[in-house]
Each structure stands twice: as structure tokens, then as C-alpha cells.
Amino acid sequence: MRILLHICCAPDATTAYKRLSMEHKVVGYFFNPNVHPRQEYEKRKEAVEKLSKAWNFKVIYPPYEPDRWFKAIKGLEDLPEGGMRCKACIAYRLRMTALKAKELGFDAFTTSLTTSPHKDVNFINEVGPKIGKSVGVEYFTSIFRKKDGFLESVRYSKELGLYRQNYCGCIFSIRKEKDGELLRKIG
User: How would DSSP label each residue in 130-167?
Assistant: First the structure.
């Protein structure tokens, strides 16, 4: 099966790619217009490029267009981390991956987001098939963090010297991190 793997970041892509590539032909798709600022986006992209070169697999890099992402989450900006804004963000990125998979003739698409212990895998694996059905391409259901998948990703990242980010990526998660840091300094 030919699978287009949405890559959220290089560390999460390690486990996802390793596991998928044992039985499938996998191409990465680094679609993350949610990542801010641009400098952070570039760091994450460079880490994915480093991983794809080390493990010799292809990755597609669409243009960085954060304005499209802001339109997709419009009205949800002030919602808490992990809520509806995050779900809209994930659904948007999965939809765009499904559309690219359909355009390029892939059999299926999936995401490396299920490697992270911070993501709602139940939501991802519920919305993925719905998006796939609406677009006309299969969603490959996965939970890459199972069987120590997240720990594997940490180990691979250290071995390869991959950049590991400390926040989700969007401007709103940066704000949350800064608020938390401020509270630690005050407290």
C-alpha cells in the first residue's frame, strides 16, 4: 500500500515512518501552517529534512501558508489548549493531507500525530476516516505511541540529533507556555 504520512515533526515521524515502512511504501508530507513563528517552522522542517536524508525517504514540502490556517481556526483563537481549536487544526491538516494523497494517487493517508502522548488519538482516529471517506481516499488508522512508540521516538531523535520542540507549534500554545513560565517566575 502507498501511504502519504502527514508529518507534524521529525521526532514523531521516526516511529510512524519506521513502523509503516516495514510493510508499506511511505512518503512524508510536512504540512504545518499552524507552526509559529516562521523561524520555528524552519527548524522543524530542517529536522524533517535531516531525518528523511538519514533514512532515505521522500518528503513533500508544500508552501508555508499560515494565513490559510488562521482562516481554518477563525473564531476558536481564545479556546483552551487541547479543545476545539486543536481539533479544528488537526482536522484541517488531515483534510489537506487527504486531498494531497488523492491528488497524487496514494492508497491511503495517516499522521504521525498519534506518536505524541499529548494528542487525542481517539479524535484523530475518529475524524481521519470521516475525512478520508469525504475525500475518497482511505485513512490508515494508527496509534504509533503504543508499544513504547513515544519512547522509541525519543531514542531515535537522540541517535539522529533531531530538534525536539517544547510546544505544539501554534501561536496560542506559545502564549500558554509563556503564561506558564510567567506563573513559575511569580510563584
Answer: HHHHHHTSEE----TTTTTHHHHHHHHHHHHT----SS
Number of Cα atoms under 13 Å in the Cβ half of residue 50: 18
List C-alpha distances in Å: 107 to 58, 114, 152: 16, 20, 27
* Model pLDDT, residue 176: 54
For residue range 123-132, list pLDDT tens digits in order. 999 999 999 9
- Measure CA 128 to chain center: 13
73-92 per-residue burial string, b: 16 or more CB within 10 A, e: under 16: beeeeeeeeeeebbbbbbbb
Q: Residue ranges of the domains in the chain?
A: 2-186
pTM, whole model, 2 decimals? 0.91
2-186: which CATH topology?
Rossmann fold (3.40.50)
Closest CA to 61 of 80, 33, 26, 94: 33
Average pLDDT over the chain, rounded to whole?
92
5: three-class secondary structure by DSSP: strand
